[in-house]
């Protein structure tokens, strides 16, 4: 799309491509969500969007993507990158920020369709979005959160070297649960070999940045 530079943005790794989704990609993402993301009875997300029927999960993915596109601004933005493994979309890696030119802080989140769990995809896609944040956008900090019983997400976070950044209480259904927050400073980030960012320069003004 000539008038939407983000449509050409992507990050590649030894195994994955993370790309701004096309309309066909959005459809495939919706299919992955409909197939299932986590075990029934467990909710890894602060907003329980996945606790519904497969059809509703699929529609919510489509609607969320369109909201992210439509609300993008220098002051507040979210990018939901489709994660492609062996030619198939397997999940989403998001990155968002508020007042980024001032704060230089981003937050990340993700999901991977359940049938692709346990293959190291979550770790590699997080490395990829950190590469985009630090090497591409010049972020100073990256933060992430997870419930204290979300062992998969916590495992990725610890593996990549984040530091503890406090806790909060969240109502998950009718029970309180601890949310753990983590922070990585640019000086603590280690660049991974074989990671590359594509077509970022034309996107930089959308973030309030110059090339």
UniProtKB/TrEMBL annotation:
GO CC list = cytoplasm
Q: Report the superkingdom from the record.
A: Bacteria
Report domain N-acetyltransferase positions: 24-189
What PROSITE patterns does its record include?
GNAT (PS51186)
Keyword Coiled coil tagged: no
Q: Which SUPFAM superfamilies match?
A: Acyl-CoA N-acyltransferases (Nat)
Q: Supply the alphabetized keyword list.
A: Transferase
Q: Which Pfam families match?
A: Acetyltransf_3
Q: Which GO terms describe its molecular function?
A: protein N-terminal-serine acetyltransferase activity; protein-N-terminal-alanine acetyltransferase activity
* Record's protein name: Protein N-acetyltransferase, RimJ/RimL family
The organism's lineage is: Bacteria, Bacillati, Actinomycetota, Actinomycetes, Streptosporangiales
